Amino acid sequence: xxxxxxxxxxxxxxxxxxxxxxxxxxxxxxxxxxxxxxxxxxxxxxxxxxxxxxxxxxxxxxxxxxxxxxxxxxxxxxxxxxxxxxxxxxxxxxxxxxxxxxxxxxxxxxxxxxxxxxxxxxxxxxxxxxxxxxxxxxxxxxxxxxxxxxxxxxxxxxxxxxxxxxxxxxxxxxxxxx
Length: 178
Prior knowledge:
Helices cover about 85% and strands about 0% of the residues.
């Protein structure tokens, strides 16, 4: 099969699966939906490659916003950044050894959490809070809720999803004979 067609097919399949999981799990809360998203991101990059991982990582928060999962349009770029960091680190660090895979899992989850916490909790809800509130781009209830949403829960969902992805990806990759 043509490599470009294969890439488009794998990426579209992963994106469709991700959007379906976002839709089906949105009523179960951040822990379930976030873990599912991170699992798909991990599987995508480990099976289909970095380009697919980046594509799905960037489209995922837009889909989440359109589905009413992302609480505020202001956080969409932050989630895009966090997702791409997660995907890039898994791609760069996770090789064939179990040690590299465990290291990739922990580093990618920690860095995604750090990016999201710094951008959303510290920048948007800290440094930029007053101007955003004054312009009506951010409401007080959201200002109070966002730091919790983009706090330690992001690390936990990245750990859970990353673990699931790292467990499933080798078998899936072998089944696809890549």
